[in-house]
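WP5 quarterly update. Target: Lipid scramblase CLPTM1L. Source organism: Heliothis virescens. Length: 460 aa.
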Amino acid sequence: MKFDYRNPATIEIKLKVPRKTRNNGTLFMHAVLLDDSRLYKEYDEIVRTESIHTLPLVTHTEPQAETFNLLQQKAEGKAVVKEKVVRPYSHITTIAPLSILTDDLRLPSNKIPGELYPYIRVRSGKFLPVLQHNVLKSRLSHFQLLNKSSTEVNITVTVSPTSYGSLRLALHVRLALEQLFTLGFSEKDVDDVKGIFADTNLYLLSATVLIASCHLLFDFLAFKNDVSFWRRKRSLAGLSARTVFWRAFSQLVIFFYLLDENTSLLVLVPAGISAIIELWKVTKVLHLRISFAGYKIRVWRDSSADAGERSTAKADAEAMKYLSMLLYPLCVAGAIYSLVYEPHKSWYSWALHSIVNGVYAFGFLFMLPQLFVNYRLRSVAALPWRAFMYKAFNTFIDDVFAFIITMPIAHRVACFRDDLVFLVYLYQRWLYPVDKSRTDTASSMDENPEELEPIKQKEE
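Structure tokens (predicted):
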């Protein structure tokens, strides 16, 4: 195939797959860059004088779990057989990305960069164009399962010119990605990191690094202030217990859902930490006390409640009464629709997806009890506003990540749904202003119920 190596090129190849490769074997492609103005007498001459690069076309990995209609499978009487240990199968790539260094190199032989040295070839005192496999553009989504009936495969070879600086950066990133495997990262996690570098331009990548740093900072500050608020909180007046229960349940479900969907660790780890914190807050709401006496764990409950907590619980129960009339029918209808019309990997997967779809689609409804409590008490002073604002910043940052980081569509939509909830809370903070003479609730958590009295409501 003739092409100008200084310009991008695409080569379509229809490859006949050997039987040994189909039987869990291997297959390699040898890319040779030849000068069409020269005549070659034998293959050894090509090996000695031209740019050659070898890249694997086949990898061995676990196949994706198959999905099917659960009701149809049961009606047909077919049993689903699951392997206890999923063994890897051969997968062949459909895209082979190559990069060619087109810059005219003028380097002393003793100053060739170490990462570039294995790819350097010299002929008649001149550097040949560097040909190498662009690992960053080789994604897991490009591989397809190779079975015994796969006799032919269409492979697209893409050739992209690159500069000296870009090639060195790509090789450094490639070495860094290889180190991630030694740290325990899975192939899926490394592929997610590749997507950040390969699927975004340089300016967007730089902005992403900055935004990710801010996201981690706000995550840490939000967790720190949230834990500090609840650790020192004595009275639950003004706080919706049902909203706390819901957030704990929803965060736990979302964590298992993201785990089931093989989501990026950038999304999974904060979700796991958030779930642990929400479960801990449930123990505070239930007034549970846990002590470790020797090898025994003792759990008991303090059932005392002040007047402020009782009035809050009354408003909370009233809000939940109205909410249940709308929420439960919608969740049941969504679960039935998913069971009848959508394929799933298992009954566990269907149950998990049904619950998490209810969490994502109607999760904002469970924020209504807290909004209703705020309305009844005409106060938002009991809320942890510092932690709230850090979470609000992260919610808007998540809107940016929704287009960059690999995540389920439902989780992506939920990022934008949370924006609406935060805006409603901000409106209530404006509507029910906190007395400025009071100490900030994030700094002094041991308020008495009388301190939660709001100042005079703004006149409309």
